[in-house]
Design a protein that fits this description.
Bound molecules: zinc ion
Distance between the termini: 47 Å
Largest sheet: 5 strands, mixed
Structural class: alpha+beta
CATH architecture: 3-Layer(aba) Sandwich
Order of helices and strands: HHHHHHHEEEEHEHHEEH
Strand order of the largest sheet: 2-1-5-6-7
CATH topology: Cytidine Deaminase, domain 2
CATH superfamily: Cytidine Deaminase, domain 2
Number of domains: 1
Radius of gyration: 20 Å
Number of strands: 7
Length: 286
Protein backbone atom coordinates (compact mmCIF):
# COMPACT_ATOMS: atom_id res chain seq x y z
CA UNK A 1 0.00 0.00 0.00
CA UNK A 2 1.35 3.44 -0.95
CA UNK A 3 2.02 5.90 1.84
CA UNK A 4 -0.57 8.36 0.50
CA UNK A 5 -3.25 5.66 0.58
CA UNK A 6 -2.30 4.74 4.12
CA UNK A 7 -2.49 8.39 5.16
CA UNK A 8 -5.88 8.70 3.44
CA UNK A 9 -7.29 5.72 5.33
CA UNK A 10 -6.05 7.11 8.61
CA UNK A 11 -7.56 10.50 7.90
CA UNK A 12 -11.12 9.33 7.40
CA UNK A 13 -12.82 8.33 10.64
CA UNK A 14 -16.32 6.84 10.55
CA UNK A 15 -18.13 6.65 13.85
CA UNK A 16 -20.35 3.65 14.52
CA UNK A 17 -23.99 4.25 15.37
CA UNK A 18 -23.67 3.45 19.11
CA UNK A 19 -23.24 6.35 21.55
CA UNK A 20 -19.61 7.35 22.05
CA UNK A 21 -19.63 6.32 25.72
CA UNK A 22 -19.95 2.63 24.79
CA UNK A 23 -16.76 2.67 22.71
CA UNK A 24 -13.82 1.10 24.43
CA UNK A 25 -10.46 2.08 23.11
CA UNK A 26 -7.39 -0.01 23.85
CA UNK A 27 -5.14 1.57 26.50
CA UNK A 28 -2.30 3.60 25.04
CA UNK A 29 1.03 2.32 26.33
CA UNK A 30 4.04 4.36 25.47
CA UNK A 31 6.91 2.26 24.20
CA UNK A 32 9.69 2.21 26.79
CA UNK A 33 13.15 3.42 25.88
CA UNK A 34 16.67 2.05 25.73
CA UNK A 35 19.49 3.50 27.86
CA UNK A 36 20.73 5.50 24.86
CA UNK A 37 17.27 6.92 24.15
CA UNK A 38 16.62 7.61 27.84
CA UNK A 39 19.87 9.53 28.12
CA UNK A 40 19.06 11.64 25.07
CA UNK A 41 15.81 12.61 26.77
CA UNK A 42 17.48 13.08 30.14
CA UNK A 43 15.41 10.33 31.74
CA UNK A 44 17.68 7.90 33.57
CA UNK A 45 15.07 5.78 35.37
CA UNK A 46 16.17 2.49 33.91
CA UNK A 47 14.47 0.13 36.35
CA UNK A 48 11.15 1.79 35.59
CA UNK A 49 11.78 1.67 31.85
CA UNK A 50 12.65 -2.04 31.96
CA UNK A 51 9.53 -2.85 34.01
CA UNK A 52 7.29 -0.91 31.61
CA UNK A 53 8.88 -2.59 28.63
CA UNK A 54 8.32 -6.06 30.11
CA UNK A 55 4.61 -5.25 30.50
CA UNK A 56 4.30 -3.66 27.06
CA UNK A 57 5.84 -6.70 25.32
CA UNK A 58 3.81 -9.31 27.18
CA UNK A 59 1.15 -9.86 24.48
CA UNK A 60 3.87 -10.49 21.92
CA UNK A 61 5.41 -13.57 23.48
CA UNK A 62 4.89 -17.21 22.58
CA UNK A 63 6.11 -20.16 24.62
CA UNK A 64 8.83 -22.48 23.37
CA UNK A 65 6.46 -25.46 23.46
CA UNK A 66 3.83 -23.61 21.40
CA UNK A 67 6.45 -22.57 18.90
CA UNK A 68 7.85 -26.09 18.60
CA UNK A 69 4.35 -27.30 17.78
CA UNK A 70 3.53 -24.48 15.36
CA UNK A 71 6.83 -24.94 13.55
CA UNK A 72 6.78 -28.77 13.47
CA UNK A 73 9.94 -28.87 15.60
CA UNK A 74 8.83 -30.98 18.58
CA UNK A 75 11.54 -33.57 17.95
CA UNK A 76 14.19 -30.86 17.87
CA UNK A 77 12.88 -29.51 21.17
CA UNK A 78 13.04 -32.96 22.75
CA UNK A 79 16.54 -33.52 21.39
CA UNK A 80 17.83 -30.25 22.88
CA UNK A 81 16.03 -30.84 26.19
CA UNK A 82 17.65 -34.27 26.40
CA UNK A 83 21.09 -32.77 25.77
CA UNK A 84 20.52 -30.04 28.38
CA UNK A 85 19.48 -32.73 30.85
CA UNK A 86 22.64 -34.75 30.12
CA UNK A 87 24.83 -31.70 30.71
CA UNK A 88 23.04 -30.96 34.00
CA UNK A 89 23.65 -34.54 35.20
CA UNK A 90 27.28 -34.32 34.20
CA UNK A 91 27.68 -31.10 36.17
CA UNK A 92 26.03 -32.57 39.25
CA UNK A 93 28.31 -35.59 39.07
CA UNK A 94 31.37 -33.31 39.01
CA UNK A 95 30.33 -30.63 41.51
CA UNK A 96 27.78 -32.18 43.83
CA UNK A 97 24.76 -30.16 44.95
CA UNK A 98 26.76 -27.36 46.57
CA UNK A 99 29.29 -26.19 43.98
CA UNK A 100 32.17 -24.07 45.27
CA UNK A 101 33.09 -20.77 43.54
CA UNK A 102 35.98 -22.60 41.82
CA UNK A 103 33.65 -25.33 40.59
CA UNK A 104 31.22 -22.71 39.29
CA UNK A 105 34.01 -21.10 37.27
CA UNK A 106 35.06 -24.49 36.03
CA UNK A 107 31.48 -25.25 34.95
CA UNK A 108 31.17 -21.94 33.12
CA UNK A 109 34.42 -22.46 31.21
CA UNK A 110 33.92 -26.14 30.49
CA UNK A 111 30.32 -25.86 29.35
CA UNK A 112 30.72 -22.80 27.13
CA UNK A 113 30.83 -25.01 24.02
CA UNK A 114 27.73 -26.95 25.13
CA UNK A 115 25.83 -23.72 25.80
CA UNK A 116 26.75 -22.36 22.38
CA UNK A 117 25.67 -25.62 20.74
CA UNK A 118 22.28 -25.38 22.48
CA UNK A 119 21.99 -21.73 21.42
CA UNK A 120 22.67 -22.71 17.81
CA UNK A 121 20.13 -25.54 17.95
CA UNK A 122 17.51 -23.28 19.51
CA UNK A 123 17.51 -21.12 16.37
CA UNK A 124 15.00 -23.66 15.02
CA UNK A 125 12.38 -22.02 17.28
CA UNK A 126 12.62 -18.51 15.87
CA UNK A 127 9.38 -17.01 14.56
CA UNK A 128 10.15 -14.11 12.25
CA UNK A 129 8.45 -12.78 9.13
CA UNK A 130 11.56 -12.42 6.97
CA UNK A 131 12.61 -15.03 4.41
CA UNK A 132 14.88 -16.48 5.61
CA UNK A 133 13.99 -15.50 9.19
CA UNK A 134 16.44 -13.53 11.33
CA UNK A 135 17.36 -16.32 13.72
CA UNK A 136 18.96 -15.84 17.13
CA UNK A 137 19.35 -18.63 19.66
CA UNK A 138 20.42 -18.30 23.27
CA UNK A 139 21.19 -20.61 26.17
CA UNK A 140 21.68 -19.98 29.85
CA UNK A 141 23.64 -21.68 32.63
CA UNK A 142 22.29 -20.94 36.10
CA UNK A 143 22.07 -22.23 39.67
CA UNK A 144 18.89 -22.75 41.65
CA UNK A 145 17.85 -23.69 45.16
CA UNK A 146 17.66 -27.46 45.30
CA UNK A 147 14.49 -29.20 46.40
CA UNK A 148 13.90 -32.64 47.85
CA UNK A 149 12.53 -33.82 44.53
CA UNK A 150 15.42 -32.51 42.47
CA UNK A 151 18.78 -32.18 44.14
CA UNK A 152 20.53 -30.89 41.02
CA UNK A 153 21.21 -27.14 41.42
CA UNK A 154 22.30 -26.70 37.79
CA UNK A 155 19.85 -25.18 35.33
CA UNK A 156 20.33 -25.12 31.58
CA UNK A 157 17.74 -23.49 29.32
CA UNK A 158 17.59 -22.36 25.72
CA UNK A 159 15.28 -20.29 23.55
CA UNK A 160 15.08 -18.23 20.36
CA UNK A 161 13.81 -14.86 19.21
CA UNK A 162 10.34 -14.06 17.93
CA UNK A 163 8.62 -11.17 16.25
CA UNK A 164 4.92 -11.97 16.49
CA UNK A 165 1.76 -9.91 16.62
CA UNK A 166 -0.86 -10.32 19.34
CA UNK A 167 -2.36 -13.26 17.37
CA UNK A 168 1.05 -14.97 17.83
CA UNK A 169 1.71 -14.79 14.08
CA UNK A 170 5.10 -13.78 12.69
CA UNK A 171 4.42 -10.48 10.97
CA UNK A 172 6.29 -7.32 10.13
CA UNK A 173 3.96 -5.47 12.50
CA UNK A 174 4.81 -7.80 15.39
CA UNK A 175 6.97 -6.80 18.34
CA UNK A 176 10.32 -8.47 18.76
CA UNK A 177 11.15 -10.49 21.87
CA UNK A 178 14.65 -11.86 22.09
CA UNK A 179 15.98 -15.29 22.93
CA UNK A 180 17.70 -13.82 26.01
CA UNK A 181 14.44 -12.15 27.11
CA UNK A 182 12.60 -15.47 26.96
CA UNK A 183 15.26 -16.98 29.22
CA UNK A 184 14.93 -14.13 31.72
CA UNK A 185 11.13 -14.51 31.63
CA UNK A 186 11.52 -18.08 32.79
CA UNK A 187 13.40 -16.89 35.88
CA UNK A 188 10.75 -14.32 36.84
CA UNK A 189 7.81 -16.47 35.63
CA UNK A 190 8.92 -20.14 35.80
CA UNK A 191 7.04 -22.45 33.44
CA UNK A 192 7.89 -25.71 35.24
CA UNK A 193 9.23 -26.79 38.67
CA UNK A 194 12.76 -27.17 37.26
CA UNK A 195 12.83 -23.42 36.57
CA UNK A 196 11.79 -22.36 40.06
CA UNK A 197 14.17 -20.83 42.58
CA UNK A 198 16.90 -19.73 40.19
CA UNK A 199 19.32 -17.73 42.33
CA UNK A 200 22.19 -16.93 39.99
CA UNK A 201 22.82 -16.78 36.25
CA UNK A 202 26.38 -17.89 35.50
CA UNK A 203 26.40 -17.37 31.73
CA UNK A 204 24.37 -16.52 28.65
CA UNK A 205 25.38 -17.80 25.21
CA UNK A 206 24.04 -16.12 22.07
CA UNK A 207 24.30 -17.36 18.50
CA UNK A 208 23.22 -15.55 15.36
CA UNK A 209 24.39 -13.57 12.37
CA UNK A 210 26.54 -10.59 13.30
CA UNK A 211 24.88 -7.30 12.46
CA UNK A 212 25.71 -3.68 13.00
CA UNK A 213 24.52 -1.76 16.07
CA UNK A 214 21.08 -0.25 15.60
CA UNK A 215 20.13 1.93 18.56
CA UNK A 216 23.34 2.36 20.54
CA UNK A 217 25.75 5.26 20.40
CA UNK A 218 27.72 3.11 17.95
CA UNK A 219 24.83 3.02 15.48
CA UNK A 220 26.02 1.47 12.23
CA UNK A 221 29.25 0.02 13.66
CA UNK A 222 29.90 -3.53 12.46
CA UNK A 223 30.34 -6.12 15.22
CA UNK A 224 32.17 -9.46 14.90
CA UNK A 225 29.34 -11.30 16.68
CA UNK A 226 25.75 -10.55 17.53
CA UNK A 227 25.78 -9.20 21.09
CA UNK A 228 22.60 -8.75 23.15
CA UNK A 229 20.54 -5.83 21.82
CA UNK A 230 19.78 -2.64 23.76
CA UNK A 231 16.57 -4.09 25.21
CA UNK A 232 18.41 -7.19 26.46
CA UNK A 233 21.38 -5.39 27.94
CA UNK A 234 19.02 -2.98 29.70
CA UNK A 235 17.13 -5.85 31.28
CA UNK A 236 20.26 -7.82 32.22
CA UNK A 237 21.51 -4.69 34.02
CA UNK A 238 18.37 -3.12 35.45
CA UNK A 239 15.40 -5.51 35.79
CA UNK A 240 14.45 -4.94 39.47
CA UNK A 241 13.51 -8.62 39.84
CA UNK A 242 16.85 -9.83 38.50
CA UNK A 243 19.51 -7.29 39.35
CA UNK A 244 18.79 -5.82 42.79
CA UNK A 245 19.62 -6.90 46.36
CA UNK A 246 22.87 -8.04 47.89
CA UNK A 247 23.07 -11.14 45.74
CA UNK A 248 21.35 -10.30 42.45
CA UNK A 249 20.22 -13.17 40.21
CA UNK A 250 22.09 -11.54 37.33
CA UNK A 251 25.23 -9.96 38.80
CA UNK A 252 27.36 -7.63 36.68
CA UNK A 253 29.91 -10.44 36.41
CA UNK A 254 27.61 -12.85 34.54
CA UNK A 255 29.32 -13.95 31.34
CA UNK A 256 27.81 -13.24 27.94
CA UNK A 257 29.45 -15.25 25.18
CA UNK A 258 28.36 -14.61 21.61
CA UNK A 259 29.24 -16.53 18.48
CA UNK A 260 28.92 -15.83 14.77
CA UNK A 261 26.72 -18.54 13.28
CA UNK A 262 28.62 -18.33 9.97
CA UNK A 263 32.04 -18.69 11.56
CA UNK A 264 31.86 -20.59 14.83
CA UNK A 265 35.45 -19.74 15.70
CA UNK A 266 34.54 -16.07 16.06
CA UNK A 267 33.39 -15.51 19.63
CA UNK A 268 33.18 -12.59 22.02
CA UNK A 269 33.26 -12.98 25.80
CA UNK A 270 31.89 -10.15 27.89
CA UNK A 271 30.41 -9.45 31.31
CA UNK A 272 26.88 -8.14 31.76
CA UNK A 273 28.20 -4.97 33.42
CA UNK A 274 30.47 -4.18 30.46
CA UNK A 275 27.90 -4.30 27.69
CA UNK A 276 26.59 -0.75 27.82
CA UNK A 277 30.12 0.62 27.76
CA UNK A 278 31.01 -1.65 24.87
CA UNK A 279 28.17 -0.13 22.85
CA UNK A 280 29.18 3.42 23.72
CA UNK A 281 26.41 3.88 26.28
CA UNK A 282 26.84 5.07 29.85
CA UNK A 283 25.75 2.61 32.50
CA UNK A 284 23.46 4.35 34.96
CA UNK A 285 24.79 4.04 38.53
CA UNK A 286 22.11 4.51 41.13
ZN1 LIG B 1 17.67 -8.51 22.56
Amino acid sequence: MADEERAGLGGEIRFPSEPASSLELPPVIEKPMTVAEAELRGLPYMQDIVEKRNVFKKPYRISLADRAEALGEIEKLQELQKRAEEVRSLLLARTGDKPTPEQIEWARDTMRGELLALARGARAFTMHHRVPPFRVGAAMLALREVSEKDANPWVIMFSANTKVDDDKKATKEGEKWCAEQYLMDRITEPTCPGEEGIKKVIAFAVSGEARSDDVSALKGVEQITLTPCAICRDRMNYDPELTTGEEPIIPLTTEVVSQDINNLGIQKWQKVGEMHGFHGERREED
